[in-house]
From TrEMBL:
InterPro entries noted in UniProt: Homeodomain-like_sf (IPR009057), Tc1-like_DDE_dom (IPR038717), Transpos_IS630-like (IPR047655)
Name of the protein in its database record: IS630 family transposase
Domain of life, source organism: Bacteria
One Pfam family hit: DDE_3
Residues annotated as domain Tc1-like transposase DDE: 180-268
Length: 268
């Protein structure tokens, strides 16, 4: 036989619940419990509360019981719901991560969720494994084996290390005006123009630029950077030819460092 619980709110609790309902920034279940408590405090029968708030009678009964046996916080919250046990144990999850980081099977460019699920089933005693379980465990470990990023992976050999050490030794040297160290590189740049006039920024609104653009050709940038002092220079050319390179080197010697005995240029 169910016990009849009587809800009697204090003025502070009543005010807190009313503020919660007017704010509307709580979970829907929490707001419904607040409505139940206020209605019960006003003496509304349980059946009427359940019908008006669109909840079951058991929800009304549990909410009132948790308030009487506990407090307002307990009545508004809910006990942790028992979920299903994790499909993969700790060692099995580690095996999944190691597999995803290994080379894919022969004939495959990369691992897929289905391939990984099948491989874990083969390596463990699981009879089946869903792709969603695999996806979640990989997401928890920040792994996306189906994605790739192009990168320049250098071949590390004795010659590479020796040249690297030569460059690092130059950078580690103290500044010497007679023997400056200048880093040099170049890069092509595409020139674009607007097809429509941008809308200027305003208070509360950033500048808006149309997604369409007009191609205005390309130029080449020759960039110089002193490794030991805050100096840099950019030369803009129409092309990237041997003659353009030679002109930049001549300008570096005659204009930028005319008093230097030797200029050591670092470039790839």
């Amino acid at each position: 036989m169910n016990i009849c619980y009587r809800v009697e709110l204090s003025e502070a609790e009543r005010t807190e619940l009313q503020a919660m309902l007017s704010g509307g920034k709580q979970a829907a279940r929490t707001l419904k419990r607040a409505q139940i408590l206020l209605a019960a405090d006003a003496g509304v029968p349980d059946e009427t509360i359940a019908e008006s708030i669109a909840v079951g009678g058991s929800t009304v009964y549990r909410t009132k019981r948790r308030f009487v046996e506990g407090n307002l916080e307990r009545a508004l919250s809910e006990d942790p719901r028992p979920g299903a046990a994790r499909k993969l144990s700790g060692p099995e999850e580690a095996l999944l991560v190691a597999t995803a980081c290994a080379k894919p099977p022969a004939g495959r460019a990369r691992w897929t969720l289905e391939l990984l699920a099948g491989e874990i089933v083969r390596l463990t005693q699981h009879e089946s494994l869903s792709r969603e379980t695999v996806r979640r465990r990989l997401c928890e470990n920040a792994l996306k084996p189906w994605r790739q990023k192009m990168w320049c992976v250098p071949k590390i050999d004795g010659e590479y290390v020796a040249r690297m050490e030569d460059v690092l030794d130059l950078y580690a040297e103290p500044s010497d005006p007679q023997h400056p160290v200048v880093c040099f590189d170049e890069s092509p740049v595409q020139l674009i123009g607007e097809t429509r006039q941008p809308l200027p920024a305003a208070p509360g609104q950033i500048e808006r630029v149309d997604y369409e653009y007009r191609r205005c050709g390309t130029v080449n940038l020759f960039v110089f950077l002193d490794a030991h002092r805050p100096w840099r220079k950019v030369n803009v050319t129409d092309r990237r030819t041997a003659k353009d390179f030679a002109v930049c080197m001549r300008e570096l010697v005659d204009v930028d460092f005319p008093q230097a005995e030797r200029i050591r240029v670092v470039m790839d």
